[in-house]
UniProtKB/TrEMBL annotation:
It comes from the Eukaryota. This is F-box/LRR-repeat protein. Residues 4-47 form the F-box domain.
Amino acid sequence: MEYLPVEVIGNILSHLAAARDVVTASATCRKWREACRKHLQSLSFNSDDWPIYRDLTTSRLEILITQTIFQITGLQGLSILMDDVDEFSASTVIAWLMYTRETLRWLFYNVRTTPNVNILDLCGRQKLEMLVLAHNSITGVEPNYQRFSCLKSLSLSYVSISALDLNLLLTACPRIEIFSLVNPEIVMSDAQVMIELNSPTLKSIYVEAISLDKFILEADSLENLHLKDCALELFELTGKGALKQFKIDDVSVLHLDIGETVDELEIVDVSSFTIIWSKFYQMISKSSKLRKLRFWDVVFDDEDEIVDLETVALCFPKLSHLALNYDLRDDLRDGVLHYGVHGSSPLQNVITLELGWTVVNDLFADWVAGLLKRCPNLKKLVIHGVVSDAKTHEECQMLANFTSAIVKLMRKYMHVDVQFDYI
């Protein structure tokens, strides 16, 4: 180790990242201390990494962080995540950012201060490429002054911001490609809660825990759209049809529109969602490049609706991964099998099949058998199931019958890798 160049040692310390580990390692010898001072690239202060952070007084913690940061030159990555820690002095935090901002490429910032520190003022017009903000307040965005010309990734969690400032912030990031918005407090000036975002460079957006009347997104280059745990009356995406991945998880939305041009769509993942199949199918029916289709815990708005695998096979010829899960109790009561296996067209390219139940019964094994017949080139089968802790004799017998039926069935498909995932 004594023959390693200081630059290499600095790279090793940068992979440690956690300030406690970096300081401990750099105490090895003078050469390692020099590597820490001049060649350390990233540094992290995280209250979850070291419980002692929470035991220190705020003033003592401020001194500790200040002493560590001010010994290092040329820092490119700084992470300060202080959950469950009392408020810091704004002047101290400003000093940390002023000292490092000219060389920083990424900043993770979750620090409560009095008063609030304006990160945009401090880090705008610098070289930041990634910015992650949490528990912060953003007001009065000025795109011309608070400009992030190098920023490609922006994440906002539990921030307070107006709908106007949110759009202006994206405007201030002319090269942004990745945007994450989690549980924001949207400050509105009128009764209707609405967000309109516009970004020609955005490629991926993740939105979680947001409640709005309208969410309108204009993004010509968007490839990845993920909505989770949201309540929306209207969600509308307009663009030039670059979308490749669409994922929606536990979302309530009355009107959903992802645009007419979905020719590039490759992945559709829908879970915990009430679906009107005819409208949803119409939205994705032209996606001839679709490779993965996942419907998990989906509730059908019309009890008589059927997702016909014949239609799926004909419209999505490149489909290689199919995942279906539903509650068979509704099927038994109404006599409707929501995922029908009628027809003769094979799912020729499906090599991975995931199937699941909420309550197992005799019908499930027959359904699995029908699906296997439709997948001549299948290589992997994953069966997910829910098995209750308190089982009646009838439930135990049903599970035993199902297991026997599946074992017998899979003897016909020895080339298929079978996995069971029970909870």
